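ugh ok fine here u go
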Amino acid sequence: MKKTDLLLHPVRMRIIQQLLAGKPQTIMQLVEALGDVPQATLYRHMKLMLESNLIEVVQVNKIHGQEERVYAAVQENLSISESEAYSASQEDHLRYFSVFHTNLLQQATAYLSKTPVKQYAADGFGYWNAPLHMTDEEFASFVATINELLDKVAANKPTSERKTRLFASMMIPQPQKPPSKGE
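structure:
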């Protein structure tokens, strides 16, 4: 199975996000955190991600003679290569985007249903889009700057002072209009 198919799956995406949001977790902690994912389904997806080295067992606890495994995401294995991303078909990209968008919608719905409106600004909740006019070189520099900033904060470890915030981004090139006579 391709890494894109492994990562861009509704349940597996939520599992990975849960493991990235804080400390490593057991199956029971994941069942509780994810809420609507049956335990058998969770085990099936965890097995697949273990075999694909997207997650790993970081600790094994003995509880009443039973082994309880503690899982963490293998962060260096969670990125999709440029060649895999660009070799996907249009249909694949539409499916991946649909999963990505649905996951964002679920995250926003969960936040909005539990948080009073007056808290949104303090939490930094927001969404927007903006047309950006850039040459290819300006765009490359812009993306490099954003990636540099993201790498810096993505390296932060969870602490009691830090809040977890989901940052999502996408770029959608717009159709080019022919230049008007005055340009």
